[in-house]
């Protein structure tokens, strides 16, 4: 392997700071991280499957019911970077524990909601709790695993994301077959309690910085993301005046934020990390990957219901192969993520995902369940191959002491992509009377673009 490749895999690290844990300590700490991760991922996946039922029960159009997903993602996205900075200041373990508690409270509020507005607000609070967890998730993995095994830890993280997404549709279908949709939130309670206990007992104490919390920068960051997100959603629904106003306010907030951050030691939005080309390219590739995945994930329940005429229980089962594929390949790629560059592994993964979406796009409406399932599995396997190496590339490109910012940006790339994907679905549902296969076609195109960008990073970095 060439010296340049070795250096890109090695990344930047401090041998003492990133020494990692071993034996039972590593198992317990990683179990706490994975259980809290499962809590946020599982509920997100279940909510997707329940969208048609929620829309019908709350008498809301499909394009508006998607806000049950968007509210969670937008709140999560808006708060990730400020919470990552707070995690670096107060401790990553404490931030994760607070997030679990907030997620539990919000789950109860979701289950007790009687209108779409109430449910949307509760989901936004749930998104803040999820942001507390996700903003420090990979940063904790960075301290649990030694540097030379970091790829395995990130792949295990991806495996449990896949398991959570896989269990979500199946569990959601099971719940909806015997109970009403509020029960998809009630089932969070025992998992949240178990996660709280394990996080308190097992998560490691990590180094804390002495940088004061930047209140103004945090508020501007939340305003920048949230105003742009709500404004773009309004534009997608053809609400032009509020859409233009809110989006314009978001752009102004971004300008003010970037000017305010100039010269700060550790800015809330880590633009200094984005100045590192390997870090920037890995974030861009991750963003493209999650735009494509959410174009599929959010639209597919409606596609299966309207175009393929499947019922709620079968919808969950037909979406599950995607997550099974992600989980399977996340487990396999853990053996290679520390040995081969992301420009190779992630590019192959995105290419396979694009091919899977193309095969789904070409299906006839009378396709069998097996025809849908194996194509979905193939696309998921490609995404499982893509994700861990690219996540590792993000983390090792950050210098020692900036794990919180890198972890936050990793999650921002993921959630920004997911949010834009969901917004595009809402826009396509608003513009086209039958957008089922249009969303799949868009997912395929975005995956191809992401594959090309990933493959070119080895040339763009040099």
Description:
- The chain has 462 residues and is mostly helical.
- Helices cover 80% and strands 0% of the residues.
- The chain has 18 helices and no strands.
- It has helices at 3-10, 23-57, 62-65, 67-90, 92-111, 116-144, 150-178, 183-186, 188-202, 215-236, 240-261, 271-274, 277-306, 312-333, 342-361, 369-396, 403-431, 436-461.
- α4 (67-90) packs parallel to α6, α6 (116-144) packs antiparallel against α17 (403-431) and α10 (215-236) packs parallel to α17.
- The longest helix is centred in the N-terminal third of the chain and has 35 residues, at 23-57.
- The radius of gyration is 21 Å and the shape is globular.
- The model is unreliable at 1-11 (pLDDT under 50).
Main features:
80% helix; disordered N terminus; 462 residues; single chain; mainly alpha; 18 helices
Give the assembly state of these chains. single chain
N-to-C SSE series? Answer: HHHHHHHHHHHHHHHHHH
How widely separated are the two ends?
16 Å
The total of beta strands comes to 0
Uncertain ranges: 1-11
Give me the number of helical elements: 18
Structural class call reads mainly alpha
- Largest sheet, strands/sense/barrel: none
Mean pLDDT, to the nearest integer, reads 81
Element layout with pairings:
Blueprint: H1 3-10, H2 23-57, H3 62-65, H4 67-90, H5 92-111, H6 116-144, H7 150-178, H8 183-186, H9 188-202, H10 215-236, H11 240-261, H12 271-274, H13 277-306, H14 312-333, H15 342-361, H16 369-396, H17 403-431, H18 436-461
Helix pairs in contact: 2-6, 2-7, 2-9, 2-13, 4-5, 4-6, 4-10, 4-17, 5-6, 5-9, 6-7, 6-17, 7-14, 7-16, 10-11, 10-17, 13-14, 13-16, 13-17, 13-18, 14-16, 15-16, 15-18
């Amino acid at each position: 392997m060439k010296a340049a490749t070795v250096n890109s895999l090695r990344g930047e690290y401090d041998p003492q700071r990133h020494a990692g844990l071993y034996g039972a300590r590593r198992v317990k700490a990683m179990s706490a991280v994975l259980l809290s991760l499962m809590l946020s991922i599982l509920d997100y996946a279940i909510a997707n499957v329940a969208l048609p039922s929620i829309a019908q029960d709350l008498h809301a159009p499909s394009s508006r019911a998607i806000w049950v997903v968007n509210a969670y993602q937008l709140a999560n996205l808006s708060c990730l970077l400020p919470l990552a900075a707070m995690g670096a200041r107060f401790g990553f373990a404490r931030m994760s524990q607070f997030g679990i508690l907030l997620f539990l409270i919000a789950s109860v509020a979701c289950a007790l909601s009687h209108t779409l507005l109430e449910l949307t607000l509760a989901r936004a609070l749930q998104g803040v709790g999820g942001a507390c967890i996700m903003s420090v998730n990979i940063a904790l993995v960075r301290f649990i695993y030694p540097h030379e095994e970091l790829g395995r830890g990130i792949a295990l993280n991806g495996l449990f994301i896949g398991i959570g997404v896989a269990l979500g549709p199946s569990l959601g279908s099971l719940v909806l077959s015997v109970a009403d949709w509020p029960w998809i939130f009630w089932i969070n309670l025992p998992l949240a309690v178990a996660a709280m206990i394990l996080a308190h007992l097992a998560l490691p104490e990590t180094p804390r910085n002495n940088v004061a919390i930047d209140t103004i920068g945090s508020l501007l960051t939340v305003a920048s993301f949230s105003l742009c997100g709500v404004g773009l959603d309004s534009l997608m629904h053809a609400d032009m005046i509020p859409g233009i106003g809110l989006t314009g306010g978001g752009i102004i907030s971004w300008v003010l934020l970037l000017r305010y951050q100039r010269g700060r030691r550790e800015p809330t939005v880590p633009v200094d990390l984005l100045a590192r080309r390997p870090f920037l390219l890995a974030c861009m590739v991750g963003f493209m990957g999650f735009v494509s995945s959410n174009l599929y994930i959010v639209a597919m329940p409606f596609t299966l219901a309207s175009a393929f005429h499947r019922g709620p229980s079968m919808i969950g089962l037909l979406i599950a192969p995607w997550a099974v594929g992600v989980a399977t390949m996340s487990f396999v790629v853990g053996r290679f993520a520390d040995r081969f560059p992301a420009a190779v592994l992630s590019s192959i993964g995105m290419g396979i995902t694009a091919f899977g979406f193309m095969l789904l796009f070409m299906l006839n409406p009378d396709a069998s369940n097996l025809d849908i399932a194996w194509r979905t599995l193939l696309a998921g396997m490609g995404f499982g191959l893509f994700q861990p190496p690219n996540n590792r590339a993000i983390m090792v490109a950050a210098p020692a002491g900036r794990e919180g910012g890198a972890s936050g940006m990793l999650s921002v790339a993921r959630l920004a992509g997911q949010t834009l994907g969901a917004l595009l679905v809402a826009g396509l549902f608003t513009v086209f009377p039958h957008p089922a296969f249009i969303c799949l076609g868009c997912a395929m195109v975005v995956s191809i673009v992401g594959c090309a960008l990933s493959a070119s990073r080895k040339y763009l970095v040099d």
